[in-house]
Amino acid sequence: MSASYTASSISVLEGLEHVRKRPGMYIGGTDRDGLHHLVREIVDNSVDEAINGYASAIRVCLSSDGRTITVEDNGRGIPVDMHPKLKKPALEVILTKLNAGAKFDGGSYITSGGLHGVGSSVVNALSERLVATVKRDGFSWRMQFRRGRTRGTLEKLSAARGTGTTIQFTPDPEIFGDQTFEPDAIREHLEVSAYLNKGLRIVFQDDLSRARHAIQHDGGVVDFLNAQIQDGGAQNSTGQIFLLERESEPRLDVALCWTDAPRERIRTFVNGIPTRQGGTHTQGIKDALAKAIRNYIAVHEAAIPRGVKIAAEDIREGVFAIGSIFLPEPQFQGQTKDKLNNPEVRGQVDSIIRVELERWLQENSSLADAILARIVLAARARQASREATTKVRRKSAVSRRLNLPGKLADCSSSDARRAELFIVEGDSAGGSAKQGRDRTFQAILPLRGKVLNAEQATHRKVMANNELSDIVKALGCGLGKDFSAKHLRYHKIILLMDADSDGHHIATLLLTFLYRYLRPLIDQGHVFLAQPPLFRIDSGKKSWWAADERERDRILKRLPPRARPEISRFKGLGEMMPKTLFTTTMDPRTRRLLRVEVPDGMMLETEQVVSDLMGKDPKTRYREIIRWMDLVHELDI
Question: Which of 66, 129, 412, 441 is the most exposed place for a label (fewest CB within 10 A)?
């Protein structure tokens, strides 16, 4: 450690330097998805112009070498006059300053997909070259940039008619390597944008494949739904589609129908942005479906066969739906906008759709009866096969037992929803946990020593690591592109480590691996931290357990003044008797678990903490440790 720690040791990243240093915080990564996220950011800005009635056409061009994108719209054109505070052209401010844009005050845009004011500037920061050309105020204007920095001043070109903005950019190979854009990925996003904004004309000029595509869908979400049904190889069970197009706030377009598919497929969007992880609007659609069907059954006294219990999953089985909502102030989970968090939206969407869906069912009673028949069949099939399906799932996992870690002590329960996997530090603690556990639903996987740091290691090293590989095999859900939540063998994954600095370090290493490679497990609430005691306090005939020194001191303060307590400190979980370990740490009736989750609105901060704390740069790690010093009980440097 350096002996000198002064103000000169503090790094300050100016302008867009932070974006270049931590691109994953803004675009999710520098892989294929991150590269194409750049296109979506610029295209979505043009779509925002169309959503608010200022543009009617968008042109996207992919260069013949697959490395350069040009996006042109006939909207109002980005302002070029001087910003009153910064004394720079507004065009330069928007493209070089984070959190700068016209989407904060609500006056220039009623709704927009880009609300954080970082999209265009992030694309600029991650581009080797970006050229912005604007038509407005009777002239053409141009400004050029390189890696987020201006190259020259704003140029006033020739006189021009009309208005609009053209952004041309080439991603920086220093960030993205030799990757090139894929025409199919770009066209897919443009198709979705055209579906969600019926009447919007988008032209995709693909010079790489020497093709030109004119995209326009006047049927909107109905056309989108029919395309999804066809792509899914399904058929509309009733031949009818429920359509809701609401123009008043919140603007909401919904199309849905029941198909012969075995699963539901609900795709949702906010201001044209696909929300792949759903959110409150998605849950509102699901709530509306369940309530509308149940209300129809109650009002019409529809005969449900005796013994059949209809669950919400039966109602949604085979449902294909497209939901598009436009909000003035959407609250997304992170810059990649995969999930909507606005709590009020769930109830709004539920009440709007439920009323209209109930009316639609009442006006089409024969259609409603056909839908109910389909739901009853789903309920019967679910009830009849639930036990068999569960056994088959478990049997399938057991049949692959040769692929399971040899040191895994599995549980006997066939219900993954009840099953728990304890990942335990060390063979000694693993032995105590195996003896003390409830074998019916608790499985034990002991680890040896400190696992690999997944933040610093390459993907190949992570996959080759025995300890991490054993975890993946035990969970059964795969990872990366092969991840499948339905194959998860345990719905509670509990990290059980010693209550000391080494134990905390191992837990942090495991959390880093889960966050980087099995993130859906955290997002879906499956990961927990056990809270084993570090101290035992005995006084008279009573015993107390304390997780750390602070809790020990609080317990001691509550004891009578004349009490002479005996205090025992556990050096590790292996010192505990199996019964003690079960009672204090594993028994669902008495244990304490901490659910691991990323708080709403904290995605960027979480990303940076993981990167700084577990990355290769010791300076950032040291600063992060100092920052959280008040939360660290023992620090071994």
Answer: 412
